[in-house]
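Let's study my pick:
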Amino acid sequence: MDGEDAMRTGIEKLHTEHIRLERLVRLLNGQSCLRTDATAPNIALLVDALCYLTRFPDVTHHVVEDRIVEKLLAKKALSIEFGHEIEAQHAALIRDGRDLLRDLQAATRQENMSQELVDVRVRLYAERLRHNMVVEELTLFPAAEKYLSDEDWSAIEDHGELGQADPLLDGEVDGRFAELYRVITAEAKVASVDELFLSRVSYTDLPSIEPLRTARLSQDLVMPKKVLGAEQIRQEVHKRILRDQPEFGDQMGVSLPLPKAHLVDDMAGNWDMEEQGHAGYGSYVRRVVDEARKEFFLSDAADHDEVLGDSLAHD
């Protein structure tokens, strides 16, 4: 297998694991909305999900991605900002996952703790995991496929993490995760990746990982995008409009709506802004919005992270 094929195969494996992890994110978001007290029927399932996440992705999947980051940074093929952000996200996920697993296990023993706080932390953890995967699909994986060589990938593989089997979804299922596997498999039959891809998207929907990959592979190169929340995108577009505005005599007054999500297009974009009837300079505003669409990917993860983080801080 040549270098390019080896690299693509390795990235495809990581991407496939992202699709699997996305199912767990949906499970965590859905199950946490029920109850996390000891009498709730879903508490054991949440414990199993966190146990799996701390036993496989934390010690294999994220480690491989961190090694890719290190290789790309050494080649100056990935911005330091993105590289350090991905590594920081992994560190936070590992720390939070272990803490949350401990608290969920305590909940099963009916120890005195805030159910509401645990519910919030489950949702926060799920949002952070989803956000991490989106960033990697739009920045890390394209850079790896373009810049890493056969020797680079061999060095990554030599550490051994890629050879470890997934205890939930590779081959025979570990008995510890039998019920978790049953629930995930049943969910996948009800809402397959294709159905998720074709479903109607709203701002609060989870962005599906598969369309990101499909859109990115449809071109030789899609510009890596920065993941922002809706209000962050609106502020950035507004700033650019005022900074680069043409001469119209008077200072133009600009009122922008929040961006609206749509299915991922062939430029890996997933949002747009409705026209507001900017008399005399509509084409200029449209141009600024289109340029921003090439640079930013809409996710509510940043907004959720801020809101849920405040909830934790003030609990």
Residues 194-315 form one domain. Confidence is low (pLDDT under 50) at residues 33-38, 192-206, 217-222, 306-315. Residues 186 and 192 are 10 Å apart (CA to CA). The two ends are 54 Å apart (CA to CA).
